[in-house]
Amino acid sequence: MGESPEPFDYVTMAIIRTINLTKKFRDLVAVDDVSLEIEEGECFGLLGPNGAGKTSIIRMITAVSPPTRGEIWVDGRELKKYPREVKAILGVIPQIDNLDEDLTVIQNLLTFARYFAIPKEVAYQRSVEILHSMALKEKRDSRIDELSGGMKRRLIIGRGLVNAPKIIILDEPSIGLDPQARHMVWQTLRELRNQGITQLLCTQNMQEAARLCNRVAIINRGRIIDIDTPQALVSRYMSTQVWEIDVTSDERDSIIRELESRQLEFEEFAGIIHVFPKDDSQVEGLPGAARAATLEDVFFKLTGRSLVE
Amino acid sequence: MRPFSWRFFRLWQRDRDVFFRLWRSEGAGAIIEPILILLAFGMGMGAFVGNIGDQRYIEFLAPGIIAAYAMFAASFECTYGSYFRMEHHYTFDAILATPLNVEDITAGEIFWGATRAFMTGCIILAIAAAFQLVPSFWALLIPLVAALSGLMFASIALFFTSIVPSIYTFNFFFTLFITPMFLLSGVFFPLDRFPEIVQTLSWIAPLTPVAYLTRGLFQGEFQPNMLLALGIMVAWAVVFFSITLVTMRRRLTK
Ligand SMILES: Nc1ncnc2c1ncn2[C@@H]1O[C@H](COP(=O)(O)OP(=O)(O)OP(=O)(O)O)[C@@H](O)[C@H]1O
Ligand SMILES: [Mg+2]
User: Which of A40, A72, B61, B125 has its CA 20 to 30 A from that of B251?
Assistant: First the structure.
Protein backbone atom coordinates (compact mmCIF):
# COMPACT_ATOMS: atom_id res chain seq x y z
CA MET A 1 0.00 0.00 0.00
CA GLY A 2 3.05 2.26 -0.26
CA GLU A 3 3.90 4.69 2.53
CA SER A 4 1.03 4.98 4.97
CA PRO A 5 0.44 7.65 7.60
CA GLU A 6 2.05 7.33 11.00
CA PRO A 7 -0.10 5.71 13.71
CA PHE A 8 -2.40 8.20 15.40
CA ASP A 9 -3.02 8.59 19.09
CA TYR A 10 -6.77 8.79 19.77
CA VAL A 11 -6.99 10.52 23.10
CA THR A 12 -8.03 14.02 22.08
CA MET A 13 -11.58 15.26 21.82
CA ALA A 14 -13.60 15.16 18.62
CA ILE A 15 -13.08 18.44 16.77
CA ILE A 16 -15.88 17.68 14.31
CA ARG A 17 -18.90 15.79 15.51
CA THR A 18 -22.07 15.12 13.56
CA ILE A 19 -25.08 13.62 15.28
CA ASN A 20 -27.72 11.85 13.18
CA LEU A 21 -27.02 14.17 10.30
CA THR A 22 -29.62 13.85 7.54
CA LYS A 23 -30.14 15.70 4.28
CA LYS A 24 -33.13 15.30 2.02
CA PHE A 25 -33.68 16.78 -1.41
CA ARG A 26 -37.43 16.33 -1.85
CA ASP A 27 -37.86 12.53 -1.77
CA LEU A 28 -34.19 11.74 -2.12
CA VAL A 29 -32.31 11.01 1.10
CA ALA A 30 -28.81 12.15 0.18
CA VAL A 31 -27.38 11.80 3.70
CA ASP A 32 -29.00 9.34 6.04
CA ASP A 33 -28.41 9.53 9.78
CA VAL A 34 -24.68 10.07 9.67
CA SER A 35 -22.87 10.31 13.02
CA LEU A 36 -19.15 11.00 12.78
CA GLU A 37 -16.46 11.91 15.27
CA ILE A 38 -13.31 13.35 13.81
CA GLU A 39 -10.42 13.77 16.22
CA GLU A 40 -8.25 16.84 16.40
CA GLY A 41 -5.13 16.44 14.29
CA GLU A 42 -6.20 13.44 12.27
CA CYS A 43 -6.82 13.16 8.58
CA PHE A 44 -10.25 11.61 8.16
CA GLY A 45 -11.36 10.25 4.81
CA LEU A 46 -14.85 9.97 3.39
CA LEU A 47 -14.91 7.31 0.71
CA GLY A 48 -17.90 6.51 -1.42
CA PRO A 49 -19.03 6.13 -5.00
CA ASN A 50 -20.65 8.92 -7.06
CA GLY A 51 -23.78 10.20 -5.40
CA ALA A 52 -22.95 8.60 -2.04
CA GLY A 53 -23.52 11.91 -0.26
CA LYS A 54 -19.95 13.03 0.43
CA THR A 55 -20.35 16.52 -0.96
CA SER A 56 -23.69 16.89 0.79
CA ILE A 57 -22.06 16.07 4.13
CA ILE A 58 -19.27 18.55 3.49
CA ARG A 59 -21.64 21.31 2.45
CA MET A 60 -23.51 20.89 5.71
CA ILE A 61 -20.34 20.90 7.80
CA THR A 62 -19.19 24.10 6.08
CA ALA A 63 -22.57 25.78 6.76
CA VAL A 64 -23.31 26.22 3.06
CA SER A 65 -26.30 23.92 3.20
CA PRO A 66 -28.65 23.52 6.18
CA PRO A 67 -29.23 19.95 7.45
CA THR A 68 -32.71 18.52 7.23
CA ARG A 69 -32.11 16.93 10.61
CA GLY A 70 -29.29 16.39 13.08
CA GLU A 71 -26.55 18.41 14.75
CA ILE A 72 -23.07 19.50 13.83
CA TRP A 73 -20.46 20.53 16.37
CA VAL A 74 -17.11 21.94 15.33
CA ASP A 75 -14.33 22.83 17.75
CA GLY A 76 -16.73 22.81 20.68
CA ARG A 77 -19.38 25.01 19.04
CA GLU A 78 -22.71 24.15 17.56
CA LEU A 79 -22.55 25.14 13.91
CA LYS A 80 -26.15 26.32 13.72
CA LYS A 81 -25.55 28.85 16.50
CA TYR A 82 -22.03 29.97 15.58
CA PRO A 83 -21.65 29.63 11.82
CA ARG A 84 -19.29 32.61 11.48
CA GLU A 85 -16.97 31.53 14.26
CA VAL A 86 -16.80 28.02 12.87
CA LYS A 87 -16.29 29.11 9.27
CA ALA A 88 -13.46 31.38 10.39
CA ILE A 89 -11.33 28.34 11.33
CA LEU A 90 -12.24 26.20 8.31
CA GLY A 91 -10.32 26.00 5.06
CA VAL A 92 -12.67 24.72 2.41
CA ILE A 93 -11.60 23.20 -0.90
CA PRO A 94 -14.82 22.57 -2.82
CA GLN A 95 -15.38 20.01 -5.54
CA ILE A 96 -16.61 22.55 -8.09
CA ASP A 97 -14.46 25.33 -9.49
CA ASN A 98 -15.75 28.52 -7.92
CA LEU A 99 -12.79 30.85 -8.31
CA ASP A 100 -13.68 34.50 -8.76
CA GLU A 101 -13.40 34.93 -12.52
CA ASP A 102 -13.49 38.72 -12.28
CA LEU A 103 -10.21 38.78 -10.35
CA THR A 104 -6.62 37.77 -11.10
CA VAL A 105 -4.85 34.86 -9.43
CA ILE A 106 -3.33 36.85 -6.57
CA GLN A 107 -6.44 39.00 -6.18
CA ASN A 108 -8.42 35.81 -5.64
CA LEU A 109 -6.26 35.06 -2.62
CA LEU A 110 -6.17 38.62 -1.31
CA THR A 111 -9.91 39.12 -1.69
CA PHE A 112 -10.60 35.82 0.00
CA ALA A 113 -8.30 36.80 2.87
CA ARG A 114 -10.33 39.97 3.25
CA TYR A 115 -13.51 37.95 3.77
CA PHE A 116 -11.70 36.52 6.78
CA ALA A 117 -10.70 40.01 7.93
CA ILE A 118 -7.01 39.15 7.71
CA PRO A 119 -4.80 42.27 7.83
CA LYS A 120 -3.47 43.35 4.46
CA GLU A 121 0.23 42.74 5.04
CA VAL A 122 -0.34 39.29 6.49
CA ALA A 123 -2.68 38.45 3.62
CA TYR A 124 -0.17 39.55 1.05
CA GLN A 125 2.71 37.64 2.58
CA ARG A 126 0.61 34.50 2.93
CA SER A 127 -0.71 34.76 -0.62
CA VAL A 128 2.79 35.00 -2.03
CA GLU A 129 3.83 31.96 0.00
CA ILE A 130 0.81 30.01 -1.18
CA LEU A 131 1.46 30.84 -4.83
CA HIS A 132 5.00 29.63 -4.29
CA SER A 133 4.00 26.36 -2.63
CA MET A 134 1.32 25.67 -5.24
CA ALA A 135 3.79 26.39 -8.06
CA LEU A 136 1.72 29.29 -9.36
CA LYS A 137 4.25 32.08 -8.93
CA GLU A 138 4.48 32.65 -12.67
CA LYS A 139 0.70 33.04 -12.92
CA ARG A 140 0.43 35.61 -10.17
CA ASP A 141 -1.23 38.26 -12.33
CA SER A 142 -3.00 36.00 -14.81
CA ARG A 143 -6.71 35.99 -15.30
CA ILE A 144 -8.52 32.88 -14.13
CA ASP A 145 -9.61 31.87 -17.62
CA GLU A 146 -5.94 31.78 -18.63
CA LEU A 147 -5.22 28.94 -16.18
CA SER A 148 -5.30 25.27 -17.03
CA GLY A 149 -7.69 22.99 -15.16
CA GLY A 150 -4.95 21.69 -12.88
CA MET A 151 -3.70 25.21 -12.12
CA LYS A 152 -7.22 26.26 -11.14
CA ARG A 153 -7.41 23.26 -8.87
CA ARG A 154 -4.11 24.22 -7.23
CA LEU A 155 -5.31 27.77 -6.77
CA ILE A 156 -8.52 26.54 -5.12
CA ILE A 157 -6.45 24.41 -2.76
CA GLY A 158 -4.22 27.39 -2.01
CA ARG A 159 -7.24 29.62 -1.45
CA GLY A 160 -8.45 27.17 1.20
CA LEU A 161 -5.25 27.81 3.16
CA VAL A 162 -5.32 31.59 3.09
CA ASN A 163 -6.95 31.91 6.53
CA ALA A 164 -4.41 29.54 8.14
CA PRO A 165 -7.26 27.18 9.02
CA LYS A 166 -7.40 24.89 12.03
CA ILE A 167 -9.42 22.38 10.02
CA ILE A 168 -9.16 21.77 6.30
CA ILE A 169 -12.07 20.27 4.43
CA LEU A 170 -11.24 18.93 1.00
CA ASP A 171 -13.69 17.63 -1.59
CA GLU A 172 -11.81 15.62 -4.22
CA PRO A 173 -8.71 17.81 -4.01
CA SER A 174 -6.57 16.01 -6.55
CA ILE A 175 -9.15 15.62 -9.30
CA GLY A 176 -7.67 16.73 -12.62
CA LEU A 177 -4.11 17.01 -11.31
CA ASP A 178 -1.19 15.41 -13.07
CA PRO A 179 0.94 12.97 -11.02
CA GLN A 180 3.55 15.63 -10.17
CA ALA A 181 0.97 18.06 -8.92
CA ARG A 182 -0.86 15.33 -7.06
CA HIS A 183 2.27 14.35 -5.17
CA MET A 184 2.99 18.00 -4.44
CA VAL A 185 -0.50 18.42 -2.98
CA TRP A 186 -0.19 15.23 -0.96
CA GLN A 187 3.11 16.45 0.40
CA THR A 188 1.53 19.76 1.39
CA LEU A 189 -1.34 18.00 3.12
CA ARG A 190 1.04 15.72 4.98
CA GLU A 191 3.05 18.70 6.20
CA LEU A 192 -0.11 20.43 7.34
CA ARG A 193 -1.14 17.37 9.26
CA ASN A 194 2.24 17.21 10.90
CA GLN A 195 1.54 20.77 12.09
CA GLY A 196 -1.57 19.39 13.81
CA ILE A 197 -4.14 20.62 11.33
CA THR A 198 -7.19 18.39 11.15
CA GLN A 199 -8.29 17.28 7.70
CA LEU A 200 -11.55 15.94 6.37
CA LEU A 201 -10.92 14.53 2.94
CA CYS A 202 -13.50 13.29 0.44
CA THR A 203 -12.07 11.19 -2.28
CA GLN A 204 -12.61 8.36 -4.70
CA ASN A 205 -8.92 7.91 -5.10
CA MET A 206 -8.06 4.90 -2.91
CA GLN A 207 -4.36 5.51 -3.17
CA GLU A 208 -4.89 9.02 -1.86
CA ALA A 209 -7.01 7.76 1.03
CA ALA A 210 -4.56 5.02 1.93
CA ARG A 211 -1.62 7.41 1.88
CA LEU A 212 -3.12 10.34 3.72
CA CYS A 213 -5.93 9.21 5.97
CA ASN A 214 -5.54 7.99 9.52
CA ARG A 215 -9.12 6.75 9.39
CA VAL A 216 -11.69 6.45 6.68
CA ALA A 217 -15.46 6.13 6.62
CA ILE A 218 -16.92 4.20 3.75
CA ILE A 219 -20.30 5.54 2.75
CA ASN A 220 -22.83 4.37 0.24
CA ARG A 221 -26.27 5.79 -0.54
CA GLY A 222 -25.97 8.32 2.26
CA ARG A 223 -25.14 5.81 4.98
CA ILE A 224 -21.93 4.98 6.77
CA ILE A 225 -21.00 1.37 6.22
CA ASP A 226 -17.86 1.22 8.33
CA ILE A 227 -15.21 3.44 9.89
CA ASP A 228 -11.65 2.46 10.73
CA THR A 229 -8.01 2.83 9.79
CA PRO A 230 -7.29 1.75 6.22
CA GLN A 231 -5.19 -1.20 7.47
CA ALA A 232 -7.89 -2.37 9.87
CA LEU A 233 -10.53 -2.21 7.13
CA VAL A 234 -8.37 -4.24 4.79
CA SER A 235 -7.71 -6.90 7.36
CA ARG A 236 -11.34 -6.93 8.50
CA TYR A 237 -12.81 -7.50 5.07
CA MET A 238 -10.00 -9.07 3.12
CA SER A 239 -7.80 -12.05 3.42
CA THR A 240 -4.24 -10.82 3.25
CA GLN A 241 -3.96 -11.66 -0.41
CA VAL A 242 -6.16 -11.38 -3.43
CA TRP A 243 -5.72 -13.91 -6.22
CA GLU A 244 -6.28 -12.28 -9.59
CA ILE A 245 -7.18 -14.32 -12.65
CA ASP A 246 -7.19 -12.62 -16.04
CA VAL A 247 -9.70 -14.79 -17.90
CA THR A 248 -10.36 -15.32 -21.56
CA SER A 249 -13.88 -16.27 -22.53
CA ASP A 250 -13.29 -19.95 -23.35
CA GLU A 251 -11.67 -20.82 -20.03
CA ARG A 252 -13.95 -18.59 -17.93
CA ASP A 253 -16.72 -21.09 -17.27
CA SER A 254 -14.41 -23.89 -16.21
CA ILE A 255 -12.52 -21.58 -13.86
CA ILE A 256 -15.73 -20.38 -12.26
CA ARG A 257 -16.88 -23.96 -11.79
CA GLU A 258 -13.55 -24.78 -10.17
CA LEU A 259 -13.82 -21.77 -7.83
CA GLU A 260 -17.33 -22.77 -6.84
CA SER A 261 -16.34 -26.33 -6.15
CA ARG A 262 -13.55 -25.06 -3.89
CA GLN A 263 -16.16 -22.84 -2.14
CA LEU A 264 -14.06 -19.75 -2.67
CA GLU A 265 -15.32 -16.19 -2.34
CA PHE A 266 -14.77 -14.28 -5.59
CA GLU A 267 -15.96 -11.38 -7.73
CA GLU A 268 -15.74 -10.78 -11.42
CA PHE A 269 -15.11 -7.27 -12.64
CA ALA A 270 -13.97 -5.90 -15.98
CA GLY A 271 -12.73 -9.26 -17.23
CA ILE A 272 -10.76 -10.09 -14.11
CA ILE A 273 -11.78 -12.53 -11.42
CA HIS A 274 -10.73 -11.48 -7.94
CA VAL A 275 -10.56 -14.42 -5.58
CA PHE A 276 -10.45 -13.92 -1.81
CA PRO A 277 -8.89 -17.10 -0.37
CA LYS A 278 -8.63 -17.78 3.37
CA ASP A 279 -5.14 -19.17 2.84
CA ASP A 280 -2.75 -19.95 0.02
CA SER A 281 -3.59 -23.64 -0.19
CA GLN A 282 -7.07 -22.81 -1.46
CA VAL A 283 -5.75 -21.32 -4.71
CA GLU A 284 -3.12 -23.92 -5.41
CA GLY A 285 -3.00 -24.93 -9.03
CA LEU A 286 -5.19 -22.07 -10.28
CA PRO A 287 -3.97 -19.75 -13.05
CA GLY A 288 -3.30 -16.13 -12.14
CA ALA A 289 -1.21 -14.43 -9.48
CA ALA A 290 -1.41 -13.21 -5.92
CA ARG A 291 -1.33 -9.54 -4.92
CA ALA A 292 -1.75 -7.73 -1.62
CA ALA A 293 -5.30 -6.70 -0.75
CA THR A 294 -5.89 -2.95 -0.83
CA LEU A 295 -8.41 -0.43 0.31
CA GLU A 296 -9.82 -0.50 -3.19
CA ASP A 297 -10.85 -4.13 -2.69
CA VAL A 298 -12.64 -3.14 0.50
CA PHE A 299 -14.32 -0.27 -1.31
CA PHE A 300 -15.62 -2.55 -4.03
CA LYS A 301 -16.70 -5.16 -1.57
CA LEU A 302 -18.69 -2.70 0.54
CA THR A 303 -20.15 -0.47 -2.13
CA GLY A 304 -20.62 -2.93 -4.98
CA ARG A 305 -19.01 -2.92 -8.36
CA SER A 306 -21.83 -1.60 -10.44
CA LEU A 307 -22.26 2.11 -11.14
CA VAL A 308 -24.88 3.89 -9.07
CA GLU A 309 -27.45 5.95 -10.95
CA MET B 1 -35.33 37.18 8.62
CA ARG B 2 -31.77 37.23 9.88
CA PRO B 3 -29.75 40.43 10.21
CA PHE B 4 -26.69 41.28 8.16
CA SER B 5 -23.45 42.45 9.71
CA TRP B 6 -20.65 44.90 8.88
CA ARG B 7 -19.07 42.06 6.93
CA PHE B 8 -21.27 43.07 3.99
CA PHE B 9 -18.54 45.67 3.45
CA ARG B 10 -16.15 42.90 2.35
CA LEU B 11 -18.41 42.00 -0.52
CA TRP B 12 -18.95 45.66 -1.35
CA GLN B 13 -15.15 46.03 -1.55
CA ARG B 14 -14.94 43.04 -3.85
CA ASP B 15 -17.54 44.49 -6.24
CA ARG B 16 -15.85 47.88 -6.12
CA ASP B 17 -12.43 46.41 -6.94
CA VAL B 18 -13.85 44.47 -9.87
CA PHE B 19 -15.66 47.55 -11.16
CA PHE B 20 -12.59 49.72 -11.12
CA ARG B 21 -10.58 46.96 -12.73
CA LEU B 22 -13.04 46.65 -15.58
CA TRP B 23 -14.60 50.10 -15.65
CA ARG B 24 -13.23 50.98 -19.05
CA SER B 25 -15.38 48.32 -20.66
CA GLU B 26 -18.36 48.62 -18.35
CA GLY B 27 -18.47 52.12 -16.98
CA ALA B 28 -17.75 54.21 -20.07
CA GLY B 29 -20.80 52.97 -21.96
CA ALA B 30 -23.02 53.73 -19.02
CA ILE B 31 -21.97 57.39 -19.10
CA ILE B 32 -22.09 57.97 -22.85
CA GLU B 33 -25.73 56.95 -23.19
CA PRO B 34 -27.24 59.55 -20.82
CA ILE B 35 -25.10 62.26 -22.44
CA LEU B 36 -26.41 61.28 -25.87
CA ILE B 37 -29.99 61.34 -24.62
CA LEU B 38 -29.46 64.70 -23.04
CA LEU B 39 -28.05 66.10 -26.29
CA ALA B 40 -30.52 64.45 -28.68
CA PHE B 41 -33.68 65.03 -26.71
CA GLY B 42 -32.67 68.04 -24.69
CA MET B 43 -31.15 70.14 -27.44
CA GLY B 44 -32.41 68.50 -30.62
CA MET B 45 -36.00 67.85 -29.68
CA GLY B 46 -36.03 70.66 -27.13
CA ALA B 47 -35.83 73.15 -29.99
CA PHE B 48 -39.30 71.99 -31.11
CA VAL B 49 -40.75 71.50 -27.66
CA GLY B 50 -39.92 75.00 -26.53
CA ASN B 51 -40.13 75.86 -22.86
CA ILE B 52 -41.82 73.95 -20.08
CA GLY B 53 -43.10 76.55 -17.67
CA ASP B 54 -40.36 79.12 -17.64
CA GLN B 55 -37.46 76.75 -18.21
CA ARG B 56 -35.84 75.35 -21.31
CA TYR B 57 -36.71 71.74 -22.11
CA ILE B 58 -33.15 70.52 -21.51
CA GLU B 59 -33.25 71.97 -18.01
CA PHE B 60 -36.46 70.08 -17.40
CA LEU B 61 -35.00 66.88 -18.82
CA ALA B 62 -31.64 66.83 -17.04
CA PRO B 63 -32.88 65.90 -13.53
CA GLY B 64 -35.15 63.24 -15.05
CA ILE B 65 -32.16 61.69 -16.83
CA ILE B 66 -30.20 61.63 -13.57
CA ALA B 67 -33.07 59.80 -11.85
CA ALA B 68 -33.56 57.36 -14.72
CA TYR B 69 -29.88 56.46 -15.18
CA ALA B 70 -29.35 56.00 -11.46
CA MET B 71 -32.20 53.51 -11.69
CA PHE B 72 -30.59 51.74 -14.65
CA ALA B 73 -27.22 51.52 -12.92
CA ALA B 74 -28.63 49.88 -9.78
CA SER B 75 -31.00 47.65 -11.73
CA PHE B 76 -28.42 46.25 -14.15
CA GLU B 77 -25.90 45.68 -11.37
CA CYS B 78 -28.32 43.67 -9.23
CA THR B 79 -29.96 41.70 -12.04
CA TYR B 80 -27.45 40.57 -14.65
CA GLY B 81 -24.40 41.35 -12.51
CA SER B 82 -25.60 39.54 -9.41
CA TYR B 83 -27.07 36.68 -11.41
CA PHE B 84 -23.77 35.94 -13.11
CA ARG B 85 -21.94 35.97 -9.82
CA MET B 86 -24.55 33.72 -8.27
CA GLU B 87 -25.33 31.15 -10.95
CA HIS B 88 -22.50 31.11 -13.47
CA HIS B 89 -19.40 31.76 -11.42
CA TYR B 90 -20.59 30.36 -8.07
CA THR B 91 -18.91 33.36 -6.49
CA PHE B 92 -21.43 33.49 -3.66
CA ASP B 93 -21.07 29.76 -3.07
CA ALA B 94 -17.36 30.26 -2.47
CA ILE B 95 -17.96 33.24 -0.20
CA LEU B 96 -20.49 31.35 1.89
CA ALA B 97 -17.64 29.14 3.14
CA THR B 98 -16.05 32.24 4.72
CA PRO B 99 -17.37 34.13 7.77
CA LEU B 100 -19.81 36.03 5.54
CA ASN B 101 -23.37 34.73 5.55
CA VAL B 102 -26.14 35.02 2.97
CA GLU B 103 -27.43 38.25 4.51
CA ASP B 104 -24.00 39.89 4.29
CA ILE B 105 -23.78 38.94 0.63
CA THR B 106 -27.28 40.27 -0.05
CA ALA B 107 -26.61 43.57 1.71
CA GLY B 108 -23.21 43.90 0.02
CA GLU B 109 -24.75 43.48 -3.42
CA ILE B 110 -27.54 45.96 -2.70
CA PHE B 111 -25.21 48.58 -1.24
CA TRP B 112 -22.90 48.18 -4.22
CA GLY B 113 -25.91 48.67 -6.55
CA ALA B 114 -26.77 51.82 -4.59
CA THR B 115 -23.16 52.98 -4.95
CA ARG B 116 -23.37 52.57 -8.72
CA ALA B 117 -26.52 54.73 -8.71
CA PHE B 118 -24.73 57.31 -6.57
CA MET B 119 -21.74 57.44 -8.91
CA THR B 120 -23.99 57.73 -11.95
CA GLY B 121 -25.93 60.55 -10.27
CA CYS B 122 -22.70 62.43 -9.49
CA ILE B 123 -21.32 62.10 -12.99
CA ILE B 124 -24.44 63.17 -14.88
CA LEU B 125 -24.95 66.03 -12.46
CA ALA B 126 -21.37 67.16 -13.06
CA ILE B 127 -21.92 67.01 -16.82
CA ALA B 128 -25.14 68.99 -16.51
CA ALA B 129 -23.29 71.56 -14.41
CA ALA B 130 -20.56 71.77 -17.05
CA PHE B 131 -23.24 72.66 -19.60
CA GLN B 132 -24.43 75.30 -17.14
CA LEU B 133 -27.81 73.67 -16.80
CA VAL B 134 -27.97 73.55 -13.00
CA PRO B 135 -29.77 76.57 -11.55
CA SER B 136 -29.63 75.79 -7.80
CA PHE B 137 -27.13 74.82 -5.12
CA TRP B 138 -29.73 72.48 -3.70
CA ALA B 139 -28.75 70.22 -6.59
CA LEU B 140 -25.75 69.18 -4.47
CA LEU B 141 -28.19 66.95 -2.58
CA ILE B 142 -29.14 65.05 -5.72
CA PRO B 143 -26.41 62.36 -5.38
CA LEU B 144 -27.91 61.46 -2.00
CA VAL B 145 -31.31 61.02 -3.61
CA ALA B 146 -29.65 58.92 -6.30
CA ALA B 147 -28.06 56.75 -3.61
CA LEU B 148 -31.39 56.24 -1.84
CA SER B 149 -33.13 55.46 -5.10
CA GLY B 150 -30.26 53.10 -5.87
CA LEU B 151 -30.89 51.34 -2.58
CA MET B 152 -34.55 51.00 -3.55
CA PHE B 153 -33.98 49.81 -7.12
CA ALA B 154 -31.11 47.50 -6.15
CA SER B 155 -33.35 45.88 -3.53
CA ILE B 156 -36.16 45.41 -6.03
CA ALA B 157 -33.75 44.08 -8.67
CA LEU B 158 -32.02 41.65 -6.33
CA PHE B 159 -35.39 40.47 -5.09
CA PHE B 160 -36.25 39.65 -8.68
CA THR B 161 -32.87 37.97 -9.16
CA SER B 162 -33.49 35.79 -6.12
CA ILE B 163 -36.65 34.33 -7.67
CA VAL B 164 -35.92 34.10 -11.42
CA PRO B 165 -35.62 30.62 -12.92
CA SER B 166 -33.19 31.75 -15.64
CA ILE B 167 -31.33 34.77 -16.94
CA TYR B 168 -33.86 35.24 -19.76
CA THR B 169 -36.56 36.12 -17.25
CA PHE B 170 -34.87 39.50 -16.82
CA ASN B 171 -36.37 40.51 -20.17
CA PHE B 172 -39.71 40.74 -18.39
CA PHE B 173 -38.25 42.80 -15.61
CA PHE B 174 -36.92 45.37 -18.03
CA THR B 175 -39.71 45.48 -20.60
CA LEU B 176 -42.59 45.36 -18.14
CA PHE B 177 -41.15 47.31 -15.21
CA ILE B 178 -38.08 49.41 -15.95
CA THR B 179 -38.81 50.67 -19.48
CA PRO B 180 -42.43 51.77 -18.78
CA MET B 181 -41.18 53.76 -15.79
CA PHE B 182 -38.44 55.30 -17.90
CA LEU B 183 -41.08 56.54 -20.34
CA LEU B 184 -44.01 57.33 -18.06
CA SER B 185 -42.72 58.46 -14.66
CA GLY B 186 -42.11 62.09 -15.51
CA VAL B 187 -38.60 61.81 -16.89
CA PHE B 188 -39.36 63.19 -20.35
CA PHE B 189 -42.51 65.24 -19.78
CA PRO B 190 -44.54 66.53 -16.86
CA LEU B 191 -47.31 64.27 -15.63
CA ASP B 192 -49.86 67.07 -15.13
CA ARG B 193 -51.27 66.63 -18.63
CA PHE B 194 -52.71 63.28 -17.58
CA PRO B 195 -56.08 62.89 -15.86
CA GLU B 196 -55.97 63.21 -12.06
CA ILE B 197 -56.45 59.49 -11.55
CA VAL B 198 -53.53 58.54 -13.81
CA GLN B 199 -51.31 61.07 -12.04
CA THR B 200 -52.12 59.51 -8.68
CA LEU B 201 -51.58 56.00 -10.01
CA SER B 202 -48.25 56.91 -11.53
CA TRP B 203 -46.93 57.46 -8.01
CA ILE B 204 -47.11 53.71 -7.54
CA ALA B 205 -44.17 53.42 -9.92
CA PRO B 206 -41.03 53.84 -7.77
CA LEU B 207 -39.32 56.10 -10.33
CA THR B 208 -42.02 58.80 -10.11
CA PRO B 209 -41.11 60.04 -6.61
CA VAL B 210 -37.41 59.90 -7.52
CA ALA B 211 -37.88 62.06 -10.63
CA TYR B 212 -40.10 64.45 -8.67
CA LEU B 213 -37.64 64.85 -5.82
CA THR B 214 -34.61 65.14 -8.08
CA ARG B 215 -36.27 67.79 -10.20
CA GLY B 216 -37.34 69.78 -7.14
CA LEU B 217 -33.78 69.88 -5.80
CA PHE B 218 -32.36 70.59 -9.25
CA GLN B 219 -34.46 73.71 -9.58
CA GLY B 220 -34.28 74.60 -5.90
CA GLU B 221 -38.05 74.88 -5.72
CA PHE B 222 -39.63 73.21 -2.75
CA GLN B 223 -42.91 71.51 -3.30
CA PRO B 224 -45.24 70.14 -0.65
CA ASN B 225 -44.98 66.55 -1.91
CA MET B 226 -41.21 66.28 -1.64
CA LEU B 227 -41.31 64.79 1.83
CA LEU B 228 -43.97 62.38 0.67
CA ALA B 229 -41.73 61.35 -2.23
CA LEU B 230 -38.86 60.75 0.19
CA GLY B 231 -41.12 58.69 2.44
CA ILE B 232 -42.31 56.53 -0.45
CA MET B 233 -38.71 55.82 -1.49
CA VAL B 234 -37.71 54.85 2.02
CA ALA B 235 -40.74 52.59 2.34
CA TRP B 236 -40.03 50.76 -0.93
CA ALA B 237 -36.38 50.37 0.03
CA VAL B 238 -37.09 49.00 3.51
CA VAL B 239 -39.75 46.58 2.32
CA PHE B 240 -37.76 45.13 -0.58
CA PHE B 241 -34.47 45.05 1.30
CA SER B 242 -36.12 42.98 4.03
CA ILE B 243 -37.92 40.61 1.68
CA THR B 244 -34.74 40.08 -0.32
CA LEU B 245 -32.79 39.06 2.79
CA VAL B 246 -35.28 36.20 3.11
CA THR B 247 -35.59 35.20 -0.54
CA MET B 248 -31.82 35.25 -1.10
CA ARG B 249 -31.33 32.90 1.84
CA ARG B 250 -33.87 30.59 0.31
CA ARG B 251 -32.12 30.75 -3.05
CA LEU B 252 -28.56 30.32 -1.86
CA THR B 253 -28.89 27.60 0.79
CA LYS B 254 -29.96 24.32 -0.72
N1 LIG C 1 -28.97 20.60 -4.85
C2 LIG C 1 -29.43 19.35 -5.01
N3 LIG C 1 -30.71 19.11 -5.36
C4 LIG C 1 -31.17 17.85 -5.50
N5 LIG C 1 -30.43 16.75 -5.32
C6 LIG C 1 -29.14 16.89 -4.97
C7 LIG C 1 -28.57 18.20 -4.79
N8 LIG C 1 -27.27 18.05 -4.45
C9 LIG C 1 -27.04 16.71 -4.42
N10 LIG C 1 -28.15 16.01 -4.73
C11 LIG C 1 -28.28 14.54 -4.75
O12 LIG C 1 -27.80 14.02 -3.53
C13 LIG C 1 -27.09 12.80 -3.74
C14 LIG C 1 -25.72 12.91 -3.12
O15 LIG C 1 -24.97 13.84 -3.87
P16 LIG C 1 -23.51 14.30 -3.45
O17 LIG C 1 -23.11 15.39 -4.36
O18 LIG C 1 -23.48 14.55 -1.99
O19 LIG C 1 -22.67 12.98 -3.77
P20 LIG C 1 -21.10 12.74 -3.74
O21 LIG C 1 -20.86 11.61 -2.83
O22 LIG C 1 -20.38 13.99 -3.47
O23 LIG C 1 -20.84 12.26 -5.24
P24 LIG C 1 -19.59 12.54 -6.22
O25 LIG C 1 -18.56 11.52 -5.87
O26 LIG C 1 -20.16 12.26 -7.57
O27 LIG C 1 -19.16 13.93 -6.04
C28 LIG C 1 -27.09 12.56 -5.24
O29 LIG C 1 -28.08 11.61 -5.53
C30 LIG C 1 -27.43 13.90 -5.84
O31 LIG C 1 -28.17 13.73 -7.02
MG1 LIG D 1 -19.09 15.12 -4.52
Answer: A72
In this structure, what DSSP letter does residue A143 have?
A: B
CB of A64 within 6 A of ligand 1: the answer is no
pTM: 0.90
Q: Rounded to an integer, what distance in angstroms lies between the CA atom of residue A163 and that of residue A160?
A: 7
Which structural domain range is residue A104 located in? 14-235
C-alpha dist (Å) from residue B106 to B90, B152, B243, B251: 14, 13, 11, 11
Closest CA to B253 of B39, B127, B95: B95
Q: Are residues A65 and A202 in the same domain?
A: yes
Of A97, A99, A111, the CB nearest to B14: A111
Residues of chain B with pLDDT under 70: 25-27
Residues 1-60 on B with a CB inside 8 Å of A are: 7, 10-11, 13-14, 17-18, 21-22
Do A141 and A114 belong together in one domain? yes
What residue type is A195 in one-letter code? Q
Taking the centre of ligand 1 as the mean of its atom positions, its distance from the CA of residue B99, in whole angstroms, is: 24
Provide the 3-class DSSP secondary structure of residue A169. strand
- Are A44 and A214 spatial neighbours (Cβ–Cβ below 8 Å)? yes
Let me know whether A146 and A285 are in one domain.
no
Q: How far is CA A138 from the centre of its chain?
A: 29
pLDDT tens for each residue of A115-171 = 999 999 999 999 999 999 999 999 999 999 999 999 999 999 999 999 999 999 999
> What is the ipTM metric for this complex?
0.90
Measured distance CA(B210)–CA(B177) in Å, rounded: 15
Same domain, A192 and A257: no
Determine the residue of chain A that is closest to B86 in CA distance: A98
Half-sphere exposure of A264 (CA within 13 A, CB side): 27
Q: Which of B232, B240, B254 is nearest to B106 (CA)?
A: B240
Is the beta carbon of A203 within 6 A of some atom in ligand 1?
A: no
Neighbours of ion ligand 2 (CB under 5 A): A 54-55, 95
Alpha-carbon gap, residue A193 to A228, rounded angstroms: 18
Nearest CA to B252 out of B67, B29, B97, B33 is that of B97
- Report CB contact under 8 Å: A87, B90: no
A101–B89: do the CB atoms touch at under 8 Å? yes
Closest C-alpha residue for ligand 1 atom 8: A56
Shared domain check, A255 and A111: no
Give the count of alpha carbons within 13 A of A174, CB side only. Answer: 21
Within 10 Å of residue B183's Cβ, how many Cβ atoms? 12
Is residue A297 in some structural domain? no
Least CA distance to A85: which residue of chain B? B99
